[in-house]
Amino acid sequence: MKKKNKSAESLKNLGERVISDINKNKNPNVIVPIRALSNVIFNEKTKTLELGNKTSTRYFFNVAHAKKFLQTIEIASISKDLINEEKHASLRDVFYMAKRTIPGTNINLVDEQSESDDIIEDLELITGNSREQLNINANKNGSVVGKVTIEDAGDTIRWDKLGSGGWSVPSNVENIKFKKIDAKYIVYMEKAAVWERLNEDKFWERENCIIISSQGQTTRGIRRLLQRMYEEFKLPIYVLCDYDAYGFYIYSVLKYGSINLAHASEKMAIPSVRYLGITSKDVEKYDLKKHFIKLKDHDIARLKQLSEYDWFKNSKDWQKEFKTMKQYGSKAEIQALSARGISFISKVYLPEKIKSKDFLE
Amino acid sequence: MKKKNKSAESLKNLGERVISDINKNKNPNVIVPIRALSNVIFNEKTKTLELGNKTSTRYFFNVAHAKKFLQTIEIASISKDLINEEKHASLRDVFYMAKRTIPGTNINLVDEQSESDDIIEDLELITGNSREQLNINANKNGSVVGKVTIEDAGDTIRWDKLGSGGWSVPSNVENIKFKKIDAKYIVYMEKAAVWERLNEDKFWERENCIIISSQGQTTRGIRRLLQRMYEEFKLPIYVLCDYDAYGFYIYSVLKYGSINLAHASEKMAIPSVRYLGITSKDVEKYDLKKHFIKLKDHDIARLKQLSEYDWFKNSKDWQKEFKTMKQYGSKAEIQALSARGISFISKVYLPEKIKSKDFLE
């Protein structure tokens, strides 16, 4: 309830400021921090991407601003209704809820979802609440198991009693309450197939950990879930990815945040996560060269991009990884470990690496 | 255990036939039904796509066949080991497990995953077992809730006690046991965001139904789960899709099977499913034209393809849908209903359509 009040309160403040401007015969306006690369900085202290302090002011009585101003007020109002009704909407829903013709004109308030998405990101900054706290959800994906008991939407849910499927992670985890956590660490992996391998082998039970995955890029729901478990229980988080630029990027986003969500880093980035695999050392040690896949142009381009990121620029370990992969001209997948036996990953690879703290930071 | 024996038995038979050929100094061979459009027929009686009776014989002592013959035997052996060890592997895992250099040569048994995938489909036909029964899993995706209790991997799981997330559907549902089902019907939807809407509104509790979704094309795990619930409990299944060619195609695959999996129709197709939304009638009734999205060339091509399918060719209703959409030159999304209120879909649209049996077949 506290969260609900906080988000509703900030939206109410926004409305009251506008009304107060009108009553004073001032040109109503909202101040919006600028979300552009020119205003994104890497905070060396917190080790996350964040926005600088450049702002722009959006006026109602300004031909260039009026539409965006209206969009901002309309979507703030949609969000406030959602919070009051205790409902959540997807980005797509909000687009359709905002999409209507402005009375007396033939102009739509929004024509494309990118417009409403944009305003939602503005509102995150204006109100200081994440999209999820504004009751607007991203996509749902991913599964989790482990010796954890939570309370959610009136149910008590044991993550260790969910068979081969696990708990389906919702898009919004803000209202989950953790009742009991019995785990030493968390392994997050990019592939659902690897998660199913570890779950079938009861890796989480034997090693006393939590395993969680989405498919490909990490969903916001999972990033927030990981962050909450780290902050509330100080559980170490290990990231298990393919040996390729895309896997490295998934790790980078989890740890430092992403450029287009720099404004949300505070709520999403987890500077303590560590990279668990696959590395160039693993390639040699576990003889993965015979399972190499040739790099394509976009792999090489992405690798170059990664090597130039502020947070990787001064990391000897990561620069070595980027250089070695380029020399190999090849990448390798986690599943290549299956060539050594279907449960090699859960019985040998992961326990060895975790025991010897063979992580990259 | 019965299932395990059946699959293991069929693989053993395959091996024994080969050994028997060798002992008789015969050229070892396997007979494989042909999986090509030329051998795919639409069975008017069962209303599903299935394979005809054309076969080809794969010989060991034949330069053109030898490699495929070896691949078949090798992957049959991998599958048998998996079944014996009670483990499941992904298609990608099986590829890596099969990928090795044939001794005394510089030839790999498989070079690309498409080769091992192909053999796995052959083995489904040769042994009469689905990929899942051979312990080889497809991708995992999707969530389910409803008043259902199952047993899976030693756990008793209540699908009605899983908060906002639901049960994460595994890739393989062959070993699930249904303990209790209290539901009048099932709604399958293509979008996770719509599922979250219906779950938050407790649609399944109010309407006494099961709601299930993946994201986009239906996973094999979900198709099998739906089929099992239909066959074991005769629950009607309604398919909720966008008003577009892709949504229609998702429905078509669920109901009739797909051309490239025609051999698996018996285990996957569910001829009784009905199409619940969105239709051209809904477009008029709920004023969705203002939310139209223009058709692209690939939409029109897909629409033409659909209209020529054997099972749609003689359906007046479906031909009308295809024609109307082409005339509109536009498609519409389920979420467009949100313009009428966030819970319009769960409180008005679905109850009205289901009550008046406003389905397409």
Note down, in words, how this protein is organized.
2 copies of one chain form a homodimer. By secondary structure, chain A is of the alpha/beta class. Chain A has 2 domains: 2-27 and 62-137, Winged helix-like DNA-binding domain superfamily/Winged helix DNA-binding domain (Arc Repressor Mutant, subunit A), CATH 1.10.10; 143-355, Dna Topoisomerase Vi A Subunit, Chain: A, domain 2 (3-Layer(aba) Sandwich), CATH 3.40.1360.10. Helix content of chain A is 43%, strand content 17%. The first copy, chain A, has 14 helices and 17 strands. Chain A has helices at 2-23, 66-85, 91-98, 113-127, 192-200, 203-207, 220-233, 245-256, 265-268, 280-285, 297-308, 310-313, 316-328, 344-355, and strands spanning 29-33, 40-43, 48-51, 55-59, 89-90, 136-137, 143-145, 148-152, 155-158, 167-168, 177-181, 185-189, 209-213, 237-240, 274-277, 293-294, 330-331. In chain A, the strands form 6 sheets. Chain A has a 6-stranded mixed β-sheet with strand order 10-7-13-12-14-15, with helices on both faces. The longest helix of chain A is centred in the first third of the chain and has 22 residues, at 2-23. At the A-B interface, strand 5, helix 3, strand 8, strand 9 and strand 10 of A face strand 5, helix 3, strand 8, strand 9 and strand 10 of B.
